[in-house]
Structures are given as structure tokens and as C-alpha cells.
Write a structure and sequence with these properties.
HD; endoplasmic reticulum; 71% helix; DNA binding; transmembrane
Amino acid sequence: MGLREKVQRKASPNAVLEAFYNRHQKKPKVSELNILAKQCDLQHREVERWFRSRLKQDQSNLTRKFCEASWRSTFYVTTFITGLIVLHDKSWFWDYRECWTGYPQQPLVPSIAAYYMLQLSFYCSMVITLPFDVKRKDINQRILHHAATIFLITYSFCANYLRIGTLVMIIHDASDCFLEPAKVFNYLKWHWTCNTLFIAFAIIYLFTRLRLFPSYVLYNTYYYFMELYQPFFGYYFMNALLMVLHLLHLFWCYLVIQMLYKFILCGKIEKDARSDSEDSENDEKETT
């Protein structure tokens, strides 16, 4: 498909610098650079260059990023189509007020149970593989997102918030199935396709996170529920988790708007604001 791996120059063997790198996993400060330069009998610039090369060695290569994005593209497209097939004939998919009709005596349909297990298994696998995935600066937000998502899926299943849960899942998948393919085509240098997918992703992401999620989910669980039932512990717990998700949405919407603004100005997608290294200015650019 034309994917070309960039050849990285390896740092020359140096026991002192390697020992410092293994302890700290980052570039040394200016004062530390001076000390290391004296210990190794090297110039200040040579030590800086060594750490720059050593950091790049640990960065994820293009093939690894391509494989990760391809796998996630396959999942998100599959699960979004599955969600549409499962929910297209459900009343609450078209009218969110139907989420509470007959609650809590709502039967568990096998297709909904399978859809839940598909989503839960994926996010559990994401937590397991997180230490081995491509490293990015928003790793703390990702951990929080995965934890909140797993708690939401599990609790909504146990408390029979199944209808709300399915709405949350398909709203999220609607934009994700454009994001990961955009990454794939970006790695392949198919710029027109990548840019088109990125614009579609940005529009859908902002609409679903800033419009649909607050109006169809948060309003539904926080306000409309109160018109029908008295609040209980599950009501507060569920809404607390949903608010955590919404705050993360606002954080990522800010990054998406930044990239969209730069795209409009420059005519191309700038480097990912969550890029995996502060020294990756010459590395390939990502779309998210």
C-alpha cells in the first residue's frame, strides 16, 4: 500500500548516558547535560544529539502505528454498523424519552446483550494493551476515559440502564469510525483521503459530543428521569460517570478545534496535539 518506514539512526553505545536514560527516560536538564558531557568527555551538543537519537529509538515506528490504527478502524466501523443494525428498529433510538418506558422492568434483548459484550470486551482489551500501545501525551485522560467507560458499561448493564447505554455507545462510535481510517491514510500519505476523513471526523465529533451527547444523554438522565422517578444512588453514580465523560469530551473537542483551525489556515493537517514525544517534530503527522 506504499507504507514506507523511516530509518532511524541508533545512538552510539555509551554506558554513562545509557544508565542516565534508563533511570529517567527523558532528556537531561541543562545542568545535568554539563555534568554528563564532562563525564563522557563529549561536547554539550553531542550529548544532546545522543539523547535525541535515544528517545527516537523508543518511539513507536510507523508500521506499529499503522497496524494499531488499522485494527481500531476495523473495530469501530464494525461496531458502528452493528449498533445501527441493532438499534435502528428500537423506539428509544428515535425518541430518547422511550428510554424510561417501563423502567426498570425492561427485558434484555439478546442483540442488545451481544452489543454490550462486544463493547465491554474491546475496552477491557484497551486497558490491558495500554502499556504496549503507541505512547501519547494524553495517556492519563485515556486511562480515565477507559475506566469511566468500563464502569458505565458494567453498571448500566447491571442497573438495566441498557437503553441509555446503547445511545452512549453509538454516539461515540459515530465519529471514531472516521478518525482511525484518517490515521491509516495519513500514514500512507494519501493526503486528500486523509483530509476528507479528518473534516468528516471533526464535524461529526463536535456535533455528537457537544450537541447529541448533552441533549440526548445528559438531559435525558439528569432532568427527564427526575420527572418520572425519584433519584436513588444509581442515578447519582450514573450521572457522575457521564459527567466525567463529558469533561473529557470538552478537552478533546478543544484539541480537535485547534487542529481544524490550523487545517483551515495551512490547508493540511498539523501534527497531533497528543503526539507521543516532544522531540517528534520531524516525525510523521497524525490526525488525532
